[in-house]
Fold:
Amino acid sequence: MAKIAEANSPKISALRTAIRHDASTLSAHLQAHQTRVFPPHARKTIRSFSPSEVAKLLGLAEGYLRTIVSDLEARDGSNFNPQSGPGNRRIYSIDDIDKLRKHLEDSTKGARSPRRYVQHRREGEELQVIAVMNFKGGSGKTTTSAHLAQYLAMRGYRVLAIDLDPQASLSALFGNQPEVHVGDNETIYGAIRYDAERRPMEEVIRQTYMPGLDLVPGNLELMEFEHTTPRMLMMEQQNRTGDSLFFSRIETVIEQVEADYDVVVIDCPPQLGFLTMSAITAATSVLITVHPQMLDVMSMNQFLSMTSDLLDQLHDAGAPDRHKWMRYLITRFEPTDGPQNQMVALLRSMFSENVMVNPMLKSTAISDAGLTNQTLFEVERGQFTKSTYDRALESINNVNAEIEGLIKAAWGRV
Ligand SMILES: Nc1ncnc2c1ncn2[C@@H]1O[C@H](COP(=O)(O)OP(=O)(O)OP(=O)(O)O)[C@@H](O)[C@H]1O
Ligand SMILES: [Mg+2]
Structure:
């Protein structure tokens, strides 16, 4: 009775009205902003790449790239026609890079020990599922996931990015506005739900504007998994069935499409709910993003102890332990900031080689690109002071290359 009386009090009703009003004002404002910076039907693209960047992505010397380009132009000029950039130098689109990679692979076929340019998994190499997590909001999970997924696709892997966050920032970065482009049952919830509306995983996967990169977008409906799972668990307890195995649901749906991909990158929400637990179970590796500041590290302490308790429970419930590696990635790092350096030194002394060698530097190039829902591989370098852009890109590329090294090591490639 007391509760009902409270809920009906004028104060509560004023609060409800105020919050509803502010929610709709804010939502309208944000939608208008989104439409301004990124119209709903605009097509996103990856920027063009210089010859030296292309040579690096393909793993060749620049001289050899020139030979291969002339070769492909002579053979397939109508389909392969890179544009000219400043100073009449060629610049390459992401599709040009894809064609070059396939051409290289074809032209080395039949050689005694052909070099592999297409990086797809080979026999015996397991699909790598990387969960990017930490329950501290704003620790750089989405920024890391987006750049990693795009980098790996540019390097020639077949990548599936899964947005597990109801806030759906990764989807927005990849051109899928959650309110405009993602409908009911179009997130991974559609594939892992418990009821008859469940659909095959391939139906919730969509292509992106990049060859080699697919996306399972997110939106608010992901929250349903957090609500329906406890109900399922309660029903199971009553019926003593125990057959829903909530924690293995993401793993199971990834298995449905396993043959199509080399790497899956999961952007987790900033909480340790059922979705995140299910992601940990599906993961072969875990990347914990951490901003090196006292409050963030204290929060990570709680995250680690809760995660370790959860892992014990999952283990007892029969979840398999498939983890190959776990790393801490220092994010938004400012090398001139004394306290941050002390914090990084502390993390390295405690966790040694589990802290990634390369930190992700804080850069206005990354945050400004984010304002227009873009990654560093999408914004044009000319929009920024060159040194600002180059430093940020170098930092991102170093982080991504280090992770690529871990993936290759998990496959036994060196
Ligand atoms: N290296 C960086 N330099 C500058 N800004 C950054 C960097 N990394 C992330 N940011 C900015 O910090 C904010 C939070 O980053 P991001 O969204 O990646 O964090 P998150 O952990 O995914 O957040 P959430 O917990 O809300 O999902 C964003 O505005 C992003 O643009
Ligand atoms: Mg995020």
